[in-house]
Structures are given as structure tokens and as C-alpha cells.
Amino acid sequence: MDIARRLVPAAIRRRYAVKFGIALLILGLSVGLIGFVATAELTSGVEDRVENDQTAFASQEAQGLQMWTEQNERTISVMAHSDAVASDDPAVVEDRLLEWEEHLADDTFTISYVDLEGETVLSSTDAALRDGTLGDLDGVDEAAYDEATADVPWTSSPYVTEGELGEEAAVITYVQTVPDAEDRAIVYTAELEAHDLEAAGDVTTVVVDGDDEIVLDNAGYLDEYETLGLEYDDTPIVAAARTEGATTQQLSAGTASVLDTYEFPSEEYVVSAARVYGTDWVVLTHEPESQAFGFVHTVNEWGHYATAAGVVLIGLIGAVLGRNTAVSIDRLTHKAGEMEEGNLEVDLETNRIDNIGRLYDGFDSMRVALRQQIEEAEAAREEAERERERIAEINDQLERTADEYSDVMEAAADGDLTARMDADGENEAMDAIAAEFNAMLEEIERTVAELNSFATDVATASEQVTASSEEVQSASEQVTESIQEISDGAEHQNQSLQSVNQEMSGLSTTTEEIAASSNEVADIASRTVDTGKEGQEAAQEAIKAMERVGSEAEDAVAEMRRLESEVQQIDELIATISEIARQTNMLALNANIEASRSASGDDEEGFAVVAQEVKALSEDVANAADEAEHRLEAIRERTEQSTGEVEGTSADIDDAGDRVQEAVEALEEITDLAHKTNVGVQEISAATEEQAASTQEVVAMVDDASTVSEETTSEAENVAAAAEEQTSALTQVTKAASDLSSQSTQLSDGLDRFETDVDGTSVRESVEVSTDLESVSTDLEADEPADPTDPLEMGEPADPAESPSEGGITFESGDSGSEDGPSDSLGTDPLATEPSAADYDAAESTWAAEVANEGSAAETDESVDPLAPDPVDPLVEEAADSDDAGAAADPLAEPTAVDDGTDEFVDPLEGADDLEGDESAPADDEQVKDNEQVKDNEQVEDDETAGTSFTFGEDSVDE
Q: Where are stretches of biased composition, namely Polar residues (predicted)?
């Protein structure tokens, strides 16, 4: 929308009438465009439907003509395959042809049955053609009879001929030969006009053949068949129908001049073409465009009229509505301008109840609301002025009180803790601040006095801890060196055992492979024995079979010899028959001679006939005897050949039997040797398996020893690492104690600056650290040489980076045990009462947890995790479980009785690290409340003190 506003000129945007007119114009143009496009689409759709109808009509005509030609071909095929034609009786065929002519009625012109070899007409339905020649048949040339077959008939081109009564007709002739009688054929002449082409209005339908000549039309060929054979000159659409299928085109007048012959209207027309399948014919339908697309033109015309009427109607309605709306909006704009100039009495009444009327009502309501808002704004302005004056007086009084309080705070910041604020009672909030500040100063006075006494005691205890830590550090270094030597020896032993383990594993693998190979050889030998036995049995069976074959061959030879003897007997019989036949032939010859000499009498003729028959019989007997002799000769030759082959086969069988016998003997010997081999391999396999079992036992023993060695090495490394960490921890403790002593001195010097009214005798008793440190020192001297136990059993010492070695102490309100709170190096709040055994126990737990976390971050050896319960040094674990558990603990720890009746090892120095977030740190509730009142209000600076400054609040005490 922003882009549209920038593109539209301001002159148009300022006038509603112009914008409404432009919108109305765009609407009219859109409606007109949509109407014309829709009309064009509708017209195109109707045209396509009309063209499809034209194409479908041409296709229907083509299908009808196709069915007519196929029917004619089936008719002549039925005739050629009928029983009457197969009888080849002209009379029967003629009767059958007349029946067919009567049955086919209008489709049939003539039917003839012809003799192709004699070139005559044997039968015909036309009496003029009976007993005629092939030349009397019109439209059939000589090539037709050569091209016609018993399955596919020959088809002629359409032509005009005279009928039996002298009438002319356009016909087409089919010729088909008779099956199993290639010299006979059926000639079937069908009348083309029997197939009617549909004629509707000015539609002209023609059928053209492969030469684009008209063979049929729906005009009856006009007068005297003058259109038959005319050339159709619009060849492109004919070619398209043959190649692309049925099609429809719109052509201009005169494209096909042949239409003038049919008196077709001289205007644009629509032509549809469809191919007649099975022939080379094409059906073409022609219809004037005004007739074909009359409805299309009507739809197009009325569509344009409706579109124009819609545009005009939109323009009229829009002009009326737009003018009234524009006038009303202009009038309202003028009245709104008067209201803008300050005239709130303008007339905003109207008789309209539509949106514009409601807009008038809205402006009227807005005018009333403006009046009320102006009056309310004036009243609010006067009230605000009075309130401003009252607040100014309060601010002046607060500024005076703040100046007084500022002077008191500056005095306290300079070290005068006796200064106090005066509550005048004029402002409750300021009075509360004065009371809280005075209470805070009183608490600070008591705190400074207690800190001064406590710092002295801490300095003394720190010196004693430093001395004891140095002695423990020396002993830990000696333990570390001894454990490192043990670890190196265990590592060397572990490597040796690993080498032995690898060698034994390789030997065991080799032994197992030998055992497996031996088992495989034994299996092969066993299978060899079985195979040898099977071969021996098979050879025995073969020998027996050959013996049986040899016996059968001898029987066959004997049988053939008997057959040969019988054949010889047959030869003798045939010779006898041949002799008898020759004698009979001689007798018949003599009888014939005698018969020829006598020339009279029927008996003599009969005698001659008998003699002739006897002669013929004797000749047949002689021929049969000769043939039998030839066949027996062939049998004799084959018998002799078979006898020789059988004798040779018998000899081969005897030879094969001898060889099989030798193979049997060899297989028996192989069987014996394989059996012996199997026994030996079984013994080797058993011995190898025993050796493999022994090797496995040795490998298992070496694995156990290697495992023990690895565990020893690992534990030694853990102990060495723990000893190193103990030494490092003691170093850190020594440093922390030294830093603590230094800080205690600094704290005492800084506290001397403060001026307080608190008497020194009222300060609480300080913590008895000296006594605890002396007890710790005694324990160190007794335990040092006897037990080099890992001090990490109770946790690691604090990281020096976390100890309060930065030369400053920080006091923060609300924190009783953090590094920013008022805690000493033992993790005890100096403002609280004297710490009890339970307090030391809680401090020990917090110190151990924090030291473990810090040691985990600083540790570089991943094999030792001080936070994890495993792996634990077995020496430390054993010592912890024994009755002398106290000797295995931290040398700085001391058993202290707690409320639950158990002994805990408590390190009085374990509070050297910060105890941030420790809920068990002792603190006085009243003192904590006083500390929370300190809110960054005072700061003390003294350049004469040796670089030491103390800040109460969030700032630390830095050196």
C-alpha cells in the first residue's frame, strides 16, 4: 500500500471523486475485458465442438463404408467356400447363386462362377453371361484372376455398367478363387449406390480413391454419372486424412473446384476428411461456414452485446453513487476544517443513515468530547501547580537533613566511630536511616575491638603451624621417593610378565592349530578308508556285472549263429520259389502261344485271359522272391557284422574284468595303509590336545600374575601421586600460615586507627587456637616417621590462589562465611561467640569439599581423582579400617568430640580457604542484622598508614 501511495499523484489522492472515477473506469474496463475474453473462449469452445462433430460425422461415414466393403468381401468368401461351389456342378452352383442374389437384394448386381483355365462362365445370375467368356465380364481385366487368391479377393475400381434390363449402375467387382480349385473363381459385382451417404442441407459428401478420383457421393453422381471418376483437386486434406487420421479444416471459397459441379455455395466452408480403413478411399464432407458455425456466430454476437451492456450499466450506477458520496464527503471535509480552526459550534446534522451519516454522528460526538477534555485539562493544570509547590517544600527539608547526615558519615569515615546522627522527627524515612546508622556504628565499634584481640592470637598460631608444616613436608618427600622406586620395579615386572604372556599365547595358538590339522588329517584318512572300501565293493560288483555281460554276449553270439543257419534255409526256399516261378512263366508263355494260334471260339479267348493272369502272377512271385532274396542278403551281412562286434565286445569285457581285479587289489592295499595312517594321526592329535591344555593352564597362570603386577603398579603409582600431592598440600599450608600471620599483623595495625569507646575488658574471649596448635605439633612429632599415609584421605589442602593472601580483608553485609565476609583465616566469624567442637567439625567438612574441588582442577595426573571414592590407596584404606585409624589420617587433624558421640578429625587450619555458602559457619543473628545495614555509606582512607586502607561495605581492605 505504501508503494501504491507513492506512485499515485497527490492531486488524485486528495480528491475522492477522481479516485472513484478512476476505480470505476478500471472496473468497467475489467468487466469489458473479462466479457470479451469469456466470449472468445466460449466461441472457441463451440467452434471446437462443431469441428469435432464434423470430424465425427466424416468418421461415421467412413466406418459405414468400411463395414459395407468388408461385408462384400465376407459375402464372396462365403460363396467361394460353400459346398455348392465345392461340388463344381454348374447347375447346383447356379441355383445357389440365384438364392444369394435374392437374399442380398439391392447390394448385388451380378454373381458369376467362372472357369479360369477354359476362360468360360460356368454359371451366372445374369442370363446374358451364361456360357459366355471371361471377356464378357465388364470391369475385370486379366490381371485380376492372377492377383485373386482363395483368402483375399481382388477388388476393381468403380465403373458404370448396364444391367440385365438395360439400366446403368455404378458398380464394383470382387474376384476370389475357390479353395482346392485354383482354376475356379467367383466374380461378385456389387452396386455402389446401394450404400447411401447421408445428405443434410447443403452438406456435400464425396468418396475418393487412391488416385483422388470420386468413386461415390451423396448427389447420385448427378446426371448420367458425370461426377464418377472426377479428380478431387484439394489434395492436402486428403493426404492429411491418410497420414494423420480424421481431420477438419476451414477453407476459403474455390479451394476445391470440383465442388462447383455440385453447385456448392461460393463461400468459406468447413471440410472434414476420414480414411476408410481396409481400402485407399477417403470420405470428405463439405458444409458452408455460415451453416456449420451459425450458432457460434450467434453466441459471439450476443456475448459482445452483453459485455457492452454490462460496462454501460456499471458506468451509470457508479456515476450516480460516486457523485452523491463525493458531495457528502466534500461537505463533511469543509465542516471538519471549521472545527480545526476552533469553531466547535459548526452544524453537523444530516438526514443520511448510512456510513456517511454515521461519520457525521462521529464528528459530532468528537466535538462534544473535545469540549469536556478541554475543561478537564484546565482543572488538572491548576491542581498540578499546587502539588508542585508542596513537593518543593519537602525537597528543601530533605536536602537540609541530608547535609547533616553527610557530615556525620564523613566523621565516621575519617575513623571517628563515636559520631551519631540526630533524628529530628520531621521525616519518618530519614529518622529510620539515622537510627539504623547509629546502631551500625555501635556494632562496628565492638567488631573492631574484637578483631584487634583476635588478630594477635592468629599471628602467634600461624608461626607455630609454619614450623610444623616444614617438618611434615620433609617426611613426605622421603616417602614419595621410596614409593616411586617401588612403582618403577612393579612396572618392570609387569612388562616382563606381559612378554611371557604373549609368547605363551602364541605357543598355545600354534599347538591348537597343529591339533586341528591333525584332526583334519585323521578325518581325511578315515574318509579314505571308507572310500577304499566302497571302491572295492564297487569293483567287485563291476566284475560280477561284466561276467554277466560276457555270458549274455556268448548267448547272443550263439543265437546269431542259429539265425544265420535259418537264413540259409530261407535262401534255399527262395531259390525253390524262384525256380517254380520261372517254370510257371514258361507254362503261361506256352499257353499264350497256343491261344494265339487258335482264332475261333470264346473258350479260346478265355484261355488266353487265364494264361495272361498266370503269367502276371508268376512275374509277381518272381519279383517278390527277388526282393526277399535281397533283403535276406542284407540281414545276413548285418548279422555277420553284429557277430563280429559281439565277439570283440566279449574280449574287451574280459580285459576290463582283469583290470578291475587289479584295481580291487590296489584299493585293498590303500585301505590298509589309510587305516594305519588314521591310527597314527589320532595318537598325534591326542598328544597335541594334551599339550594345548597344558599351555592354556600356563597362560592362565601368567595372566593372573600379570594382573597382580598391573594392580601393584597402579597402586604404587597412586601412592606416589598421593605422596606428591601431600607434599604440595603441606607447602601450600605453610604458605597459607605465613600469609595468615602477615595479614594478622596488618589487621592489628589497621584496627589501631579506629577511635572507639568500647572497653578492652568487655571483648569476648578469643578462640583458643594456641592450645590446639600445640596439640597438633605434638601429633606431628609422634606420627611423622611411623606412617607415610596419603593425607588426601581427609581431602586436599587449599589452593594458595584461593587463600586470603592478597593483603586485604573484606567485610560485606549479610555474608557470614564467604571470602568477602568478616571471617578470619580459620573460617570463624570474629563477631560470633567462641567456636565450639561442632563448629570446627562443620568447618572441616566444608574445607575438605572445597580442597577436593580445587585439587581436582589443579591435578595433571588423570590416574588419581581426589573426588572419587575409587581407586583408593589400599595402604590408606587398610590403615583407615584398622584400630589405629588416627595414625592414617591427616597429620594436622585432631580428634574432637562432637554432639553425635563420634570422633572426627578436625584441622584447626582448614578454614584458611573461603567458606562461601557454608550454612554451618557460626554467626550471631544480631550481628548479621547489623552488618546488613552497611550499604556503601562509609569509606576510610589514610595516606599516613603504610599503604593500608579499610572499607566498610562492598570494597575490600587492600594493602
A: 492-515, 768-778
